[in-house]
TrEMBL record:
Zn(2+) binds at H198, H200, E205, H247. NCBIfam families: PRK00924.1 (NF002091). Keywords: Isomerase, Metal-binding, Zinc. It holds the Pfam family KduI. This is 4-deoxy-L-threo-5-hexosulose-uronate ketol-isomerase. The keyword rRNA-binding does not apply. Belongs to the KduI family. Gene3D superfamilies: Jelly Rolls, pectin degrading enzyme 5-keto 4- deoxyuronate isomerase, domain 1. Its EC number is 5.3.1.17. Catalyzes the isomerization of 5-dehydro-4-deoxy-D-glucuronate to 3-deoxy-D-glycero-2,5-hexodiulosonate. It catalyses: 5-dehydro-4-deoxy-D-glucuronate = 3-deoxy-D-glycero-2,5-hexodiulosonate. The lineage of its organism: Bacteria, Pseudomonadati, Bacteroidota, Chitinophagia, Chitinophagales. Pathway: Glycan metabolism; pectin degradation; 2-dehydro-3-deoxy-D-gluconate from pectin: step 4/5. InterPro entries: KduI (IPR007045), KduI/IolB_isomerase (IPR021120), KduI_N (IPR027449), RmlC-like_jellyroll (IPR014710), RmlC_Cupin_sf (IPR011051).
Length: 280
């Protein structure tokens, strides 16, 4: 196995205005999260959130610490949330086994020393997507199924944004210090997500797009509300959204995405809405 990581520095919005397509992708797009028998991650200096993926194809993988953390083990000063976007598998946390099927989540609190990953079927390996953030309290580990999620239905077919929001790792479902994660599923015929768009200075966000049909794509929009940019994305790719940036997208077909947030406010509804007519 290999543990691979990148460090991404924060960028001032005035600088991002001058970025070309290549530079925007270098700073914000995460192209290769899921590789067989590897744990890949990006450590962003926006709220020090880490986004990563683990694919235990041939055997067991271990969540190892990385040098920038200067920690004896990954969760020494951190918490982490997982959502499985692949085949059925298991995550073992300090000897306790948690079975995770497709679209099931697991929250793991600070202080757990050993986290390992396995797939139930090597021909259909698990894809464990994770977000991690610094934590000051050790909350209990908890598995969350879709049936246990807080469900919200938003949008309409007429505005092409009918969608179901599954709040999986949020403070109304499980105690966390700052990490929040959930999953939004677009209805057939709908393509727009997170519309009306918004920003929130209290926290950053990461989006992972998946269930994007073959030969289809996502156009993700980011930037200040009056200075927007777009990034074309493929299946199983993620993108970092700074606190000052909108985060919205449209696909060439229906899809699902995972949103993950880190910051100082756990109120899901804390956002500064920008109506479509006010975007530039």
């Amino acid at each position: 196995m290999a543990t691979n990581y990148e460090l991404r520095h924060a960028a001032h919005p005035n600088d991002v205005k001058n970025y070309d397509t290549k530079k925007i992708r270098e700073h914000f797009l995460i192209e290769k999260l899921f590789e067989n028998d590897n744990v890949n991650m990006v450590y962003s200096l926006y709220d020090r959130v880490i986004a990563g993926g683990a694919v235990p194809a041939s055997g067991k993988l271990t969540l190892e610490t990385i040098d920038p953390l200067k920690a004896n083990y990954f969760l020494e000063r951190r918490e982490i949330g997982f959502i499985n976007v692949g085949g059925a598998g298991k995550i073992t946390v300090d000897g306790t086994v948690y079975e995770l099927d497709y679209k099931e989540a697991l929250y793991v609190g600070r202080g757990n020393k050993e986290v390992t990953f396995e797939s139930n079927d090597k021909n259909r390996p698990a894809y464990f997507y994770f977000n991690s953030a610094p934590a000051h309290v050790n909350f209990p580990t908890k598995k969350i199924t879709k049936n246990e999620a807080e469900i919200v239905n938003l949008g309409t077919p007429e505005t092409c944004n009918a969608r179901t929001i599954n709040k999986l790792i949020v403070n109304s479902v499980v105690q966390t210090c700052q990490i929040q994660m959930g999953m939004t599923e677009l209805k057939t015929g709908s393509v727009w997500n997170t519309m009306p768009s918004h920003t929130h200075d209290r926290r950053m966000e990461v989006y992972l797009y998946f269930e994007v049909p073959e030969n289809q794509a996502i156009c993700h929009f980011m930037g200040e509300p009056q200075e927007t940019r777009h990034v074309w994305m493929k299946n199983y790719q993620a993108i970092i959204s700074p606190n000052w940036s909108i985060h919205s997208g449209a696909g060439t077909a229906a899809y699902t995405f995972i949103w993950g947030m880190g910051g100082e406010n756990l109120d899901y509804g804390d956002m500064d809405v920008v109506q479509p007519g006010d975007l530039r």
